[in-house]
Description:
Phosphorylase Kinase, domain 1
Amino acid sequence: MDATWKVFFLLILLLISLNFYASFGTADTINSIQSLRDGETIVSSGGMFELGFFSPGNSTKRYVGIWYHGISDQTIVWVANRESPLTNQAGVLKVMQPGLLVVLVNDTGEALWSSKGSRSVHTPVARLLDSGNLVVKDANVDDVEENYVWQSFDYPTDTYLPRMKFGWNFLTGVDIYLVAWKADNDPAPGEFIYGMELSGYPQIVLRRNTVELNRFGTWNGIYFSGFPDVRGNPTYYMDFVMDKNEVYYQENVIDKFRLFPSGVGKNFTWVNRTQEWEVYMDRPADNCDSYSLCGAYGICNIQNSPACSCLDRFVPKDSEGWIKADWSGGCNRRMNLSCQGDGFIKYPRIKLPDAKNSWINQSMTLTECGVECLKNCFCTAYTQLNISDGSGCIIWFGDLVDIRSLNVDGQDLYIRIASSELGSRGMKRRILIASLTSAMGVILLGVSLVLFIRKRNKVSMTAGKCKESKDKESELTFFKLAIIHKATNGFAMEKKLGEGGFGPVYKGVLVEGQEIAVKQLARTSMQGIDEFKNEVIFIAKLQHRNLVRLLGCCIQGDENLLIYEYMPNKSLDMILFDETTGDLLDWPKRFHIINGIARGLLYLHQDSRLRIIHRDLKASNILLDSDMNPKISDFGMARSFGGNETEAKTHRVVGTYGYMSPEYAVDGIFSVKSDVFSFGVLLLEIVSGKRNRGFSHSDHHLNLVGHAWSLYKDERSHEVVEASLRNPQDLTQVIRSIHVGLLCVQQNPEDRPSMSSVVLMLGNEGVIPGAKQPGFFTEREPVVSQYSTSTHATNSPNQLTITKLDPR
Ligand SMILES: *[C@@H]1O[C@H](CO)[C@@H](O)[C@H](O)[C@H]1NC(C)=O
Ligand SMILES: *[C@@H]1O[C@H](CO)[C@@H](O)[C@H](O)[C@H]1NC(C)=O
Ligand SMILES: *[C@@H]1O[C@H](CO)[C@@H](O)[C@H](O)[C@H]1NC(C)=O
Ligand SMILES: *[C@@H]1O[C@H](CO)[C@@H](O)[C@H](O)[C@H]1NC(C)=O
Ligand SMILES: *[C@@H]1O[C@H](CO)[C@@H](O)[C@H](O)[C@H]1NC(C)=O
Ligand SMILES: *[C@@H]1O[C@H](CO)[C@@H](O)[C@H](O)[C@H]1NC(C)=O
Ligand SMILES: CC(=O)N[C@H]1CO[C@H](CO)[C@@H](O)[C@@H]1O
């Protein structure tokens, strides 16, 4: 009897506690049966945060948001429908299948806001956690991040809460950043944005619309170089994570960071939970925090008056401006760099310069870092990446901007200085590199973009050049993956234009209506990565009306994309070698195309800053705009020549059969003259409308070049042109062009004209010498020639490999 009562009593206790547990359990959760109405709230289990409807300031509009529970001053930390307020108090918040959180105007009305769902779950619930994170997950799974189908921490409004990951997740495409409210009574997105920017070494940047206002400084392993180290308490946690899947900053030092509508960011900590906040730190803190206040090579010191001065060994660029307190012109070197023989000087205790054009390596030592910098003529400074364990290397390219001096902490920066400035004391930091191959210099040139190059799962980065730079010509934009995804309908098959050198090319249309071509690096292609990098390095620096224009890049997650202006008339080979469209190309159009290519190539060879050899000039690499202007594309194999170098040799011959000069295909020697050879072949193809490779004629076994040469010798050059396209009034120009083409394909590179002579000769100027025997004119397979006894390229004694074949 006694025992029965005991059991009964225990059962009742159990029921009560279960019931209690159940009701307590739902206080922080909304399931798909219940919904949250205006006036109701849920509170996180520890009583930290509260979710419900509110009106900001004197506004009467209603929003769904999260605030601190039990504090008189309602400080909102997150808003759901910041852009679409409710106009009355009939709104409801619901959790719906397959895992979406929605704000409805009323029980049966339309949705004003919805969370973005990527995965679906069977019984979705929304739960407010004690961290202030509102998460959506299945009711029956554990409360861990992997199980969340959505979380408000991925979509913050203007407030950072402890442990939020601030930055990018490349797997999900989520970019976590803060956008200030428009005004104190309007949570709609305002003008100020704090975000992690990926160009170069990732940095946290404050912008007003697109104008950069303030930079936290680079992460040095312990803190941002512009901030003093605040760690002291072992429970403090600050970290900067960068791997192939994500880049983010995370901390628990402050209790919240809010970006106010005025653009001021404030760090807050509790005095105690029921009392007021204490402002811990303001950003920007002072004038020296204004981005690039003192211009290039200027340094800002808030204790000086004026705050700006030039770094030691630098002088004001615009002295009058400096007198008038306009320092934006920055400073110049007292002595110019000479590339070889420069050294470094240590500038101590500073906030490191803007790292948008930087390159990092996580394993190099400081000494190796200096050596790496000297190898590249564009490198201007270097230092340690991680001061906590003294590892890693960060290198800057181009002008150094946004430097300030810090009295506590601050880092050392080693700036490249001309040897004559170093003096005997500087000599010890001077590292001489005996020789420097130009190819190496260019590959490391780094003037281009952020590239996440993955090798064996390790991330290394090359420098970024996606900023608004003073020289307009190398301006590149960084596109978000979502934008490109949208523009190309998610890389839809029907948007595919073809296959480029290292992957597929898609057509896209940006929201503004601009048409673009998107080149995607195939994920499996290792060689593709080098070509991609090469393309970026060269094309970002080049601008000419006969070169295709790169609009920007997108490097996010596994995607490496280049975005070009769209060429409506596709590539030359598609029109030229097609019988129906080929006929539309009359001689004036063909001559226009030949001249355009010649001028583009002349620019590459002589006029551009880099002196570039394209190495893969062919019809499919010539694109045509709406006015049929030709544009040279595909710089994946291009090489730059420094100083007075004229030729180089490679063991890895890349190019396309039919366009390669003999000395290049056989001996791997390339020079501007090997490009001239390819141009000659291309010219003859344009004139004849026939491919050099695969050309056949009933009378002989010559290729197109040989055919043209034999007709030339018989003074029957005009027969190279299809009978249907022959026009008496064009005859002299046609014959002259063929003559120039044959000069370009002469066997001996020295006999071939330079592109400047080609342009002159085509323009009917100058005397045209007689053409000598061309190279590679007899055979279809060029490697079977008098230059090589081997019939298989890969077996030839000098390890010749031809890695790229024209598929047609
Ligand atoms: C609300 O307050 C702002 C200033 O904070 C003021 O400009 C605005 O006129 C006020 N609106 C109403 C409806 O009182
Ligand atoms: C709910 O909102 C819709 C508009 O979305 C409106 O047409 C309808 O009348 C509203 N229902 C109630 C009960 O207010
Ligand atoms: C806020 O303080 C933390 C250190 O607790 C610091 O890392 C962060 O940069 C600060 N943010 C601003 C904007 O001052
Ligand atoms: C909170 O701080 C105030 C003063 O800052 C103090 O008077 C009060 O007792 C504190 N409350 C608690 C619960 O610690
Ligand atoms: C440095 O180079 C610039 C051009 O690049 C030139 O204008 C200037 O005179 C040079 N200065 C010195 C000191 O040689
Ligand atoms: C050009 O090459 C010669 C040796 O061939 C060398 O002495 C000279 O310094 C070079 N000039 C430049 C500008 O590199
Ligand atoms: C030959 C050819 O295809 N020309 C086209 C080039 O592009 C313009 C504009 O898209 C068309 O109008 C031409 O027909």
